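Working notes for the structural subgroup meeting. M.R. asked for a predicted model of this chain before we commit to crystallization trials. I am recording the input and output together here so anyone reviewing the notebook later can reproduce the run.

Input as submitted:
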Amino acid sequence: MNERPSWYSRLRREPLTERTFTKDLRNKIEREIASRELGRGSRFGRGTRRMWAAGLIGAVLLLGGYGTVQLERERMAGEGGGSDFVIAKGWIQDGGQLPAPTGTLGGIVKKQGPDVPVFERMLNTMDYFTTVQGAYHVSEDRGKNEYVVEFTVDEGEVPGSSHKRLDGKTRQVYSITNFDGKVMLHMYLEEKRKGKPFYWIDDRLNKRTGEPPAGPRFYKDSQGMNNWSARGGKAWADGLDLVYPSYFAFWTVDEATMQPIFEITGTEPFLDREATIMEGKLDAYMGEKQGAERYKYWVDSETGVILKLLLTDRAGEPVTVMEMTEIRFDEPVDREVFSTKPQEGWTERKREFRNPEIEK
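Returned structure, recorded in token form:
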């Protein structure tokens, strides 16, 4: 049988070449995904839908020669149990060797004195505390999706973390992520916030040094693409978006100039701490994703941790609210909460996606 598939002749006429993955091309791919039955009827898609879309975009990136760079990262609470709240804008590259930068550079910041701007602290919160414990409430999509996050983190010599998510109405725990310094336990319910619990364990995690990335945190490269570099803490608690708010800091960066654009509108007490208030307008891309126009952050002046986040629409109505209800820094922690021992009744399930920081 000598018949060639339909793509064969096209490939001979137009062999694969490296393409600059522009914002227009990104949006075109997103429109194509949205036009398929897969994403129809949902603003962002859920569960395996998100994974399918990410896989398609990832394949395009690999064909284009972009390797480990990701187009968009969502804060996910596991298969079918996650939030639709997209927190990443543009290109995100977490760790590894960054391409050679050109033009405006984002800063590299290590622990410094009290003169460090609150924006820089947001990019490096782990430099300003050893332990943090607390809880925050999240209301998304104008109150249609609510949940509570309870957390304990130790970024000290023996790091560890515990991150639980509870349904905002029933208080049912539907997700647990624990790191005991060596391995990580993930537990999720079989269906979104209900069903049987299953778990898996990551036992080949790379050891993190706690140091910031070696290159700029955000910049425009020689191909004109915007690059963003998040920073992971030793405690592997990256899913705590308010505690490690790099992505929310990136929202303030203008994509044309790669400079932060926001207004400091004052300070006020918040949970017995001083909060610096940052306000600004979301860019067109992220505004469309969030269904919002403006952001307002109450940022802990000392650590850079976000104490409250508010997204509002054109009429000033709340779209998303994330608010700390309790927070304590540098107090002793009970390491029992970091346990990675599965509970009775949990079913082990093999992981269906690869953590980019797991050793080969």
